[in-house]
């Protein structure tokens, strides 16, 4: 593991992947807001509620991955 941390080539795509991850997080946030509006209109909309859970889990997993990736860069 230490070999990959000290190898700069191992992190050549970090900037690009981080930008892509931020884009996905922003789209997930927008989707959550849209589903929240659907739930306001119909509080029984189980599909919108389910989708929010999926998007929130996605955000949590990506945040965790970005945080752990960042720990190796410091």
Instruction: State the secondary-structure class.
Output: mainly alpha
What's the structural domain tally? Answer: 1
Name the helicity range. over 70%
How large is the radius of gyration?
A: 17 Å
End-to-end CA span: 15 Å
What percent of residues are in strands? under 5%
Figure out the total of helices. 3
Largest sheet: none
Shape: elongated
Number of strands: 0
Provide mean pLDDT, rounded. Answer: 74
What string, H for helix and E for strand, traces the elements in order? Answer: HHH
The low-pLDDT segments are: 1-16
* Oligomer kind: single chain
Task: Describe this structure as you would to a colleague.
This protein is mostly helical. The protein has one domain. 82% of the residues lie in helices and 0% in strands. The radius of gyration is 17 Å and the shape is elongated.
